[in-house]
Amino acid sequence: MTVETIKTILNADVLCGEDRLDREVHAACGSDMMSDVLAFVKEQAVLLTGLVNPQAVRTAEMMDISCIVFVRGKRPDGDIVALAERRKIVLLCTKLEMFSACGLLYSNGLKGGHLKK
Amino acid sequence: MSILKLHYDIDGSDFTRAGEASGKVKRVLKKLGLDAEAIRNVSIAMYEGEINMVIHAGGGEIDVEISSELVTIVLTDHGPGIEDVSLAMKEGYSTATDNIRSLGFGAGMGLPNIKKYANEVAIDTKVGVGTTITIKIYVPDCSAEL
């Protein structure tokens, strides 16, 4: 699934990375706890979160996550968007809450990953 | 075989900057062309350690040594120390405050995650004195020229 498709399914706004919407993602992880995300293993994943601080972007950077979707209509400030732009991470924003956003992506074919044992 | 040494002073007063050093190390390792999984393992283990250092110890220092076979990360702080290391290694155990949890950490996964992603972990801690965590990650089939 491309980031463009995720944007369409979630009726999301693009906060940065408009030129990188053709990226492919193969899995998704939804969490507000970044340590839980760091225990998650899957290449080319998208992160859905309600956490709007720089650690969401830094966690994505460490995990090679190419796209973050902020749920529940949350919007990060300009510094966070600038950090994501520097790290070439696409930021999307949807008004959907976490459960609905994850459910829509799952029902459209995107799967979860697994935890590192 | 040469060894690249990096040093970072970690500011414990600004949570928004926590993880900057880990990001820098990741970009250095990518430039060096190390094995992708080893880079990911180093990044996550160091990031968890750096976050812990800011959350629990008011900052500290991180030294990284990179060779073609091994990445060693030494995190040193002068914080409160860890009272019960075996308890701290259990998933879900945390002494973090609700404020820290609101920032996305403090789920009791920090040290367990470090253990998961590292090949070797050594924790030297003394209550009231501080903690030194040494993390070693092996680098397989490395084509990097240091």
Question: What is shown here, in short?
Answer:
Chain A has helices at 3-9, 34-38, 54-63, 78-86, 98-107; strands spanning 13-16, 27-30, 40-41, 45-49, 67-70, 90-93, 114-115. Chain A has 117 residues and is α/β, with parallel strands linked by helices. Chain B has a single domain (14-138), classed as Histidine kinase-like ATPase, C-terminal domain (Heat Shock Protein 90), CATH 3.30.565.
Top keywords for this entry?
heterodimer; A: 117 residues; Udp-n-acetylmuramoylalanyl-d-glutamate--2,6- Diaminopimelate Ligase, Chain: A, domain 1; two-stranded antiparallel sheet; 5 helices; 21% strand; globular; B: 146 residues; alpha+beta; Heat Shock Protein 90; five-stranded antiparallel β-sheet; 36% helix; 27% strand
Could you please describe the fold and organization of this structure?
The complex is a heterodimer of chains A (117) and B (146). Helix content of chain A is 35%, strand content 21%. Chain A has 117 residues and is an alpha/beta fold. Chain A has one domain: 3-Layer(aba) Sandwich (Udp-n-acetylmuramoylalanyl-d-glutamate--2,6- Diaminopimelate Ligase, Chain: A, domain 1), CATH 3.40.1390.20. Chain A has a 5-stranded mixed sheet, with helices on both faces. The mean pLDDT of chain A is 93. Chain B has 5 helices and 5 strands; from the N terminus they run βααββαααββ. In chain B, a hairpin with a 3-residue loop joins β4 and β5. A 5-stranded antiparallel sheet of chain B has the order 1-2-3-5-4, covered by helices on one side. The longest helix of chain B has 22 residues. Helices cover 36% and strands 27% of the residues of chain B. With 146 residues, chain B is α+β, with helices and mostly antiparallel strands. Chain B has a single domain, classed as Histidine kinase-like ATPase, C-terminal domain (Heat Shock Protein 90), CATH 3.30.565. The interface between A and B is medium-sized, with 23 and 28 residues.
